[in-house]
Model the fold of this input.
Amino acid sequence: MANIHDEFKPDLTPQQMLGLGVFGGNYFGEAEREELPDEWFEGVRIATNGIADEKLNFFEVAASQPLEVWQRKGWIHPADPLGWFQWYCRYSLGRRMDDEDQRQIKRWKAMNRHVAQVKQGCQQGDLSCRRKQRQALLHWTYDSRKL
Done:
């Protein structure tokens, strides 16, 4: 990723996230997928009926709130109507929006509290521990498999 903010150090690229299994295989519609590189979707398990399936997630648990919750809480920017991951995909492809980038990076950094909880509450390498929290971390580019 070119021209990345100094404080933003994601563990995973969007392609890696999709390959691992995030958002129940149902984050992007066809229109949104068209703007992303085809190789990001090679070998990715996609929910075929348009409904998220927790079994398609790496940890096989649901760890997302519905988009309506994000909208109600004001977490959605009009430029990225699908939320955080849409922003991250576009950011990784080079789009920059200073204020929005700062806001999203601040939200990403706030997930560190979950990293600390997994480190404190789980033995290293025990992927069965705090599966929902670990899945949520994957959704935010934190690779909890190495904790």
About this structure: Residues 46 and 69 are 23 Å apart (CA to CA). The radius of gyration is 15 Å.
